[in-house]
Amino acid sequence: MARTTDGDGTPVPQRLLAAATRLFAERGYDRTSVQEIVEAAGVTKGALYHYFGSKEDLLHEVYARVLRVQQQRLDAYADADEPVETRLRGAAADVVVTTIENLDDADIFFRSMHHLSPEKHKQVRAERRRYHERFRALVEEGQQDGVFSSATPADLVVDYHFGSIHHLSTWYRPDGPLTKQQVADHLADMLLRALRP
Q1: What is the pTM of this model?
Q2: Which of 5, 156, 178, 195 pairs as cysteine with 182 (C-beta 3.0–4.6 A)?
Q3: Pick from 101, 30, 97: which is nearest to 59 by CA?
Q4: Nearest-angstrom CA–CA distance, 37 and 49
C-alpha cells in the first residue's frame, strides 16, 4: 500500500497530523471537521480512518508524539553516565526546548484534552505520569545522595518545574527577547538553585 498520495514524499499520517495540528491551533478541535482535515492534507476520509480511526485519535496523537520524544530524551539523560546534577539539568532544559519546539501541539492538547474519551484520557494521564515519575526519580536520587536539598518534597519540585512549562504557550514568542535555549537554561538553572543544599 502506498504511503503517499502526492509527489512530495510526505507520508500520509504525517500530512494528516500536520493538517490537524494547524487547523486545531487556528480553529479549535471542536470547530474543525474531519472533512476540513482531509481536504487540508489532500487525502480521503478513508485514509484518515485507515491510519487514525477518528478525529479523537488525531488529537491524542498530536500530544502523544511529543510525549514520546520527550520520554526518549529523558530516558537518555537519566541513563547517562554523568553526575545526577548534570543529568537533571539536561533533562530540565530539554523538556523546555522540546515543548517550545512543539508549542502548538502542547497548547492544542491542554485546551482540548477534555474532548478525549475517558479511556484515552486515562491513557494520556498514565503516559504523563510515567514521564513525571522518571523526572522525579532524578530529583530523589540527588536528594538521597545529598547533592540536592530534601527540604522540599520531590513531587513539589517536579510540579513547580512543569507548572512553568505548561504556561509557556501563554507568553513565549519565537521573535521575543529570549531564544528557546535561553528560556530552557534559565528555567533549568532556577530548578537547580531551588534544590541547592
Answers
A1: 0.86
A2: 178
A3: 30
A4: 12
